[in-house]
Amino acid sequence: MKFIHDAVSILRKDILLEIRGKESLSLMLFLSLLFLVIFNFALDIDKENVSLLASGILWVIFSFTGILGMGRTSMSERDEEAYLSVVFSPVSPESFYAGKVLSNLLFLLLMEAFTLIFFAILFDFEKIITLLPQLLPVLLLGTLGFALVGTLFSFLATASRYGEVLLPFLYLPVVVPVILGGVSSMDIILNGKPGGPGRWLQIMVVFDMLYLSLSLLLFRYIIED
Amino acid sequence: MENWAYLFGAYTVAWLGVSFYLYINAKKQKGIEERLSDIEDLLKHIEHKK
Amino acid sequence: MKTNRIIIFLFLMLLILLPLDFFLIFKVAPTERVMGDVQRIFYLHISLAVSAFVALTSVFISSILFLWKKDLKWDTAASVSAEIGVLFATLVLVSGSMWARPIWNVWWTWDPRLLTVLILWFIYIGYFLLRGGIADRFRKAQYSAVIGIIGYVDIPVVRYATKWWKSIHPLLTKEGGGLDPVMKKVMFFSMATFLVLTVFLFLFRFRLARMEERLLILKKRMED
User: Which of A41, A124, A147, C6 is the most buried (most CB within 10 A)?
Assistant: First the structure.
C-alpha cells in the first residue's frame, strides 16, 4: 500500500511541476508537430499512401520525441540532485521508479494523443481517430514499454559525461521489439491486413512484464551509489 | 571462381581483426609493465629512505 | 603466476589448433555442391557467432556477480568479455556479409539472425559509450552492470520479434539441409578452436586490465 501511495505522490509531484511550467510536455508537443511537417516534405504524403505510411511515421515520432521528454525529466532530477532526497527519504527506490514510470507514461500518452489528432488533421486521415478503440491497446502497451526502459536508462545516461545525448544509443536498440510491435500492429489495424495484431500484443506484454521486473530489481543500483 | 575472393576476404578480415586486437593490447601491456616496474622501484626507493 | 602459465599454454595450443583448423576447413571438408567453396566461410562465421555468444553470456554472468559481490574484479571481467564479444560480433557481421554477397547476391539482408546480431552489437557499443562517460570507478561498474544484464535479456526478445516480423514478409533465406557428417565434424572442431581462442583472449586481456588497475592504485599512492 505504501508502495502505491509513494509512487502516486511522485506522480503528483511531476504533474505539479509540469503545470508550474517545467515545459517538458510542451517541448514534446512542439517537436512532434515539427516532425510531422518534416515527414510531409520527406515522404510526400498524400491520400493514396497515407494509410501505408502512417504507422511508421507515428512510431518514429513517438520514439524520438519520447526519448527527448524522458531525458529531460530525469535531467531535471539530476540537476537539482532532487533524486538524492529520495535516497534519504522513506520512499523506496522501487516506488520512486514506479512513480517516474507513471509520470513518463502519462506525458508520453498525452503527446501521442496530440500527435494522432494533428496527424488526422494535417493529412486528412480521420480513420486513425475512428479506429482509436482498436489502436488503444497497441498504444498503451508500446508506450508502457517505452516508459519502463526510458525511465531506467535516462537515469543511467544522465549520470555520464555525455548526458542525454547518450540516451538514444542505449535506449533505441533495447526497445526495438516494442517499435517493431507497435509499427506492425498499427499497420495491421489501419490497413486491415490478415492475421490481426494479437501476436504482436503478446510480444509487447512479455516485453513489458520482463522489463518491469528487471527494472524493479535493478533500479536500486542506479539510485544508491 | 570469382567467389574465391569472398572466401579469402572473410578469413583475412577475421584474422586481421583478431591479430590487430592482440597487437594493440600486447603493445599496451609492454608500456604498462615498464611503468609498473618503474613505479615499484621508485616506491621501494622511497620506503628505503624512510 | 598461475594465469601466466595458462595463457602461455593456451597460446601454444592455438599455434597447433589454428593451422590444423585451417587445414581441416580447406582440405578435408568436402566442397558443398550448390554453394561451392564459398560455403567454407560458414565454419568461420558460425564459430565466431558461438564465441561471441559465449563472451556476451560471460558479460551477463559477471555483471550479476558484480552487483551481488560488489567486487570490482567482476566488473573488469564483464568489460573485457564485452570487448571480445563486440570484436567477434563485428567479425560475424563482416563474414556474414562476405557470404551473403555471392550466395544471395546482396551485401546485407534483413534476416532475423543478422538483425539480432546487429541490434546486440549496438547495445554493447552503448555499453562502452556509457563506460567512457562515467569517471567514478564504482559507479561505472554499477551502471554498466545494469546495461550488461538488460542488454543480454533483450537478445531473445529481439530474436523472437524479428522472426515474427519476417514471417509476415516473404523469406529470402532458407535454412540449409542437413550437413554432411565430415562437415559436421569440421564444424565442431572449428567451434572448439575458436572457444580456446576466446578463453585465451579473455585471460590475456583480463590480466592486462588488472595490471592497469594496479598501476592506477600505485600512482595514487605516489601522489599521497
Answer: A147
**Segment C100-108 long-range contacts (CB within 8 Å, at least 24 positions apart):** C101/B6, C102/B2, C102/B3, C102/B6, C102/C35, C102/C38, C103/C35, C103/C38, C104/C172, C104/C173
Q: Is any Cβ of chain C less than 8 angstroms from the Cβ of A179?
A: no
- Quick: pLDDT tens for C173-220: 444 556 678 888 888 999 999 999 999 999 999 999 999 888 888 888
Backbone torsions φ then ψ of C36, nearest 5 degrees: 75, -155
Q: What's the mean per-residue pLDDT of chain C?
A: 87
* HSE-up of residue B47 (Cα within 13 Å, Cβ side): 8
Look up cell 559507479; give the residue: C139
Region of residue A21 (phi > 0: left; psi between -120 and 50: alpha; otherwise: beta)? left
Average the pLDDT over A153-171 and give the result. Answer: 86
Q: What is the least distance, in Å, from the CA of C130 to any CA of chain A?
A: 7
* Listed ranges A155-164, A168-177, A196-205; the one with the highest mean pLDDT: A168-177
For chain A, the domains span 2-223
ipTM beyond 0.90?
no
Residue range B32-37: mean pLDDT, rounded: 88
The answer to whether the CB atoms of A160 and C150 lie below 8 A apart is no
pTM, 2 dp: 0.88
Backbone torsions φ then ψ of A192, nearest 5 degrees:
55, 40
Q: Which residue in A83, A183, A221, A225 has the most chain C C-beta atoms within 10 A of its own C-beta, making it the best mutation to test that interface?
A: A221
pLDDT in tens, C150-186: 999 998 898 888 888 876 554 444 445 566 788 888 8
Q: Do A169 and C146 touch (CB under 8 A)?
A: no
Domain-wise residue ranges, chain C: 38-172+179-223
